[in-house]
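Appendix B, Record 12. Input sequence as logged:
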Amino acid sequence: MDKTEESLPNLIERAKLGNQKAFSTLLNNYWNDVYGFQLIRTNNENDAEDITIQTFSKAFDKINTFNEAYEFKTWLIAISKNLHIDLIRKSKRNVLQDSHENNNEAIKRVLDDAPSPEDSLITEQNLASLLAYIKRLKPHYQEVINLRYFHELPYAEIAEKLGEPINNVKVKLLRAKRLLAEIIKNNN
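Logged structural output:
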């Protein structure tokens, strides 16, 4: 952490009060630690990045549970480690389920993969609904979702377009997805 910045306890306290700048500062200060930890564990840049994003998302959601008796970095690493373990368990469970299926079932799934006209219509209707939900978000969240999922831009290009650090783009996208999920959940 940059020593010229405010103290870690002050940052955490401001984050607990919902201060977005405190969240961004914490993210910027600890991103490399968590990402490096996951890169060593997963040996995969994409998985390490995904788990790191999930780590900060979960940490920021649960910031009020942070106990100042512990190191903040240790708390983040513990969250990150648990998320990685959950991911491994989930993938093992999926592999076991797949191995128990009959080969005929796998063949049927491949043959039935082509969308029917009804499926295409449902997809179009779902897309229209999704776009309506996205329009309920604040403009800066709409923009980041649009750039990432409709224009399929990588994080670096989005950061360049928005003139923001890449870590802020990642967190903004996480928040946008969370808010969108809430909107969809509240309307169903």
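The chain is about 80% helix and 0% strand.
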